Amino acid sequence: MATRTDPYRQLRFILEIEGLVTAGFSRCDLPSATSAVVEYREGADPPTPRKLPGLNEYGPLVLEVGVTDRSLELSEWRTLVEQGKMDEARRDAAVVLLDATGNPAARWVFREAWPSKYDAPRLDAMASEVAVERVVVVHEGFARIAVETGSDEGDESESDGDDSESDGGSSPSLPDLDFPVGEGLPQGIDESRLKVTRAEDEASDET
Predict the structure, then answer these.
(1) Confidence of residue 21 (pLDDT cuts 50, 70, 90)
(2) CA 29, 98, 173, 167 torsion: positive or negative?
(3) Pick from 52, 24, 41, 60: which is nearest to 139 by CA?
(4) What per-residue confidence (pLDDT) applies to 48?
(5) Helix axes 191-206, 153-167, angle to 10 degrees
(6) What is the phi/psi pair of residue 163, to 5°?
(7) Following DSSP, what letter does each residue of 57-107 receive, concatenated?
(8) Residue 152 above 90 pLDDT?
(9) pLDDT-based confidence at 15, cuts 50/70/90?
(10) Element (H, E) at 166
(11) Backbone φ and ψ of 57, nearest 5°
């Protein structure tokens, strides 16, 4: 008898942003990934143009969250962009879908993400709805990666301990966000540059 596999529900998820606390959101619209189609044909070809891939395009990540003291970090993240501090504003991020028991089930990771738009909540003295703020996050590529299994729990616990000592446990423990090498690598991502940048950031944190 075949094993039944039910799909995960969409109602439990969290967002991890490098340098910000792990947060829950009321709504998260994951982006699309498309490749432009370039048509080309030579005179000796059949009477049908070839379909060649053009530039890869990634839609924005749209987040909605109820206004709390903790959500102030999202507005401050947007302020970095307005002040032109893009080196600080660009972050790695991950959206994690949880299963019925609250464990990670699926993970999407984003490179060089930053908030391009912030919408403050609409207020109405005659309404009793939750005040919701909205953030539009752009990025330079995303991919779904495999969720780590329980065999790495020992390594994760050690890394979590290191994070808590370095920053008081305020930063989420993000996984290795390296994309698969090969055809799955998003355009324009230089892995060697990213590794050097990450090493410099870690060295500055230690000092």
Answers:
(1) low
(2) positive
(3) 60
(4) 94
(5) 50
(6) -65, -40
(7) EEPPEEEEEE--STTHHHHHHHHHHHTT-HHHH-EEEEEEEE-TTS-EEEE
(8) no
(9) confident
(10) helix 153-167
(11) -125, 140
